[in-house]
Hints:
The complex is a heterodimer. Chain A contains 13 helices and eleven strands.
Amino acid sequence: xxxxxxxxxxxxxxxxxxxxxxxxxxxxxxxxxxxxxxxxxxxxxxxxxxxxxxxxxxxxxxxxxxxxxxxxxxxxxxxxxxxxxxxxxxxxxxxxxxxxxxxxxxxxxxxxxxxxxxxxxxxxxxxxxxxxxxxxxxxxxxxxxxxxxxxxxxxxxxxxxxxxxxxxxxxxxxxxxxxxxxxxxxxxxxxxxxxxxxxxxxxxxxxxxxxxxxxxxxxxxxxxxxxxxxxxxxxxxxxxxxxxxxxxxxxxxxxxxxxxxxxxxxxxxxxxxxxxxxxxxxxxxxxxxxxxxxxxxxxxxxxxxxxxxxxxxxxxxxxxxxxxxxxxxxxxxxxxxxxxxxxxxxxxxxxxxxxxxxxxxxxxxxxxxxxxxxxxxxxxxxxxxxxxxxxxxxxx
Amino acid sequence: xxxxxxxxxxxxxxxxxxxxxxxxxxxxxxxxxxxxxxxxxxxxxxxxxxxxxxxxxxxxxxxxxxxxxxxxxxxxxxxxxxxxxxxxxxxxxxxxxxxxxxxxxxxxxxxxxxxxxxxxxxxxxxxxxxxxxxxxxxxxxxxxxxxxxxxxxxxxxxxxxxxxxxxxxxxxxxxxxxxxxxxxxxxxxxxxxxxxxxxxxxxxxxxxxxxxxxxxxxxxxxxxxxxxxxxxxxxxxxxxxxxxxxxxxxxxxxxxxxxxxxxxxxxxxxxxxxxxxxxxxxxxxxxxxxxxxxxxxxxxxxxxxxxxxxxxxxxxxxxxxxxxxxxxxxxxxxxxxxxxxxxxxxxxxxxxxxxxxxxxxxxxxxxxxxxxxxxxxxxxxxxxxxxxxxxxxxxxxxxxxxxxxxxxxxxxxxxxxxxxxxxxxxxxxxxxxxxxxxxxxxxxxxxxxxxxxxxxxxxxxxxx
Lengths: 396, 464
């Protein structure tokens, strides 16, 4: 694919993120007001200073009115966007491009989801009238097919792959235990993780992302205006997005050990940002660990590990908080929780904290590298959307 | 009428017996009553009379792929729909010519043999499909003696295809008496005192039998294979003794392993008898159902070359037991806690009708430029029927969270011989007995029902 990118033309100058969790005491409006309010305060502006809004929610509301009503916006353009679980990232992408285009000086992306009002476990897709021939599996089951395929391809036995997956969940619980906003703030032993009740295939309940309510928000301005709002803006280096065409589900060549949409979006993002060696140039990465095998494969798709080696790297601690390349230092979807429309902006919130040196001491990453990556996907192996962003502490 | 010299009769005959068996002794173990010896066949939770009819119809068609089907008749006491014709789904799944009619003969157990007689005495070719799910309240005789299954008989002249069993003639007797009955919507039948039915049926059987012998100018001793069936078991036994045919010539009614499949039983037993019959043998079918119908056939030389593609005997042999608890939940006699997931939304009728070939016929498409096989079919490409293609499991998972009438969902990515891949639910399988590389075949099933609309589509099941 080809893209020009908007490297260093747009900066994030304010962010907010609610606590994620089973917020039975908070409605969507409460979450939106909290998340957006934190971002306004962070940038030192109010809602009238924002020229245009993008609101990401997968299925908690329709149209821009879902945001305009709780924020009591007057005469503002508000666009509701949806792109599966990459919805929050899509809102940010649209807001950043709107500023880069010159159409607006100040734009805001808000992502929110009220998942826990359904009364059911897990995430549930909004039913669209259909011919009844489509797949009816849960996301857990779809992603569970990755683990045995990966293990077979690279000669990892079932016990080893189980250890690897547990190690990934263990790491994200370790990180989440150090995050006051996270849904699960408790370390989990490898034994507990491995003994958790099976959900699908090899996956237990502790291999799955937390299902949470929450909201997150970002305010973007032209890079040259950034210092009017904050001393420590973060600059957008790359925004890449790919929507697969679903052919992986019916393509006999697809083997469930990689996600082509992620590979393409990562390559595009690295080209936009001028990155050639992500493992050594990035300070950290927030990736879409919806299930433990997803994170395993993403390490290879994003170029953090050689093909067939991510399982060894995961066991060796490469992606731990104190590893060579910390991944999901905020606990990831696993521990922070996954309010669908908010997750992409939640990932960016951790980059914001870490690059500005504002992360709590006990989970602050040690390296001083100036770049961070977020990876946010939606859909399933074979039919996926994938977003990759790169942000940096410095312009130019 | 057929041309002089031509013969009319059965061109193809196939039975369908579902994969699962209930040990009748499990009923008494649970309730301290009911049950008995042997097993009965059990339709899967995702089967109904329509899907079983499709299975039988496919087998009958597969034996004579070139024979035309002029009309489709479908009989059952347990139709999936009322008002709406059920035969049309079978018609669509068998990909019959849209110019040919499809009719339901539903409600009474007698409708199966009735449709068969209509077809035999009519003109043109007709596929006569019958199917039933038989059960009753826990511990009832109907629960233990019943069976689930289907049959399909292709009837026509030898110009439609080689006739393997020539129709020689028929006899009938009709009486009105309330011996067995069920109100529409009830899940169980009720029966009158057994002796009463016997006293009515036996004279009717004798009358119909004599009428058939007269019509065919046959004597009882010329009957080589006698099939007698009916839901009144005692009357069936008593009638057999009055027909003058030696007990050694009575065809096994499959009651010990399959049970009585009601409307489907005459077709199932004819298919079974034809698997064993030799050319020239006379086969008499006697059906007790609100009267008695007798149909007499003679096996022809064409039977020797006939390919029983899916013999009833093989299906009886390839079976697996089902626990009584599952049986009760599958038949909705007991409701167990469902997965905590939303139930599926109803299927859109208009969306489904746009993809009839795909949804009902499992027809994919081939791109003539690169020979790629696409499932579902892509617009503008050449249709390729895939329902009879075999496939291989390349990946699978067990979903313990997804909604199902019988969790867990076992799901596999299947690569088909000749190209094409499709992710499918597996059925007639145990979750811990699936392996990458297993061979599977396609089977037409009911995925779920919402707002009274049944979602019919295809699943894969292990090739056995």
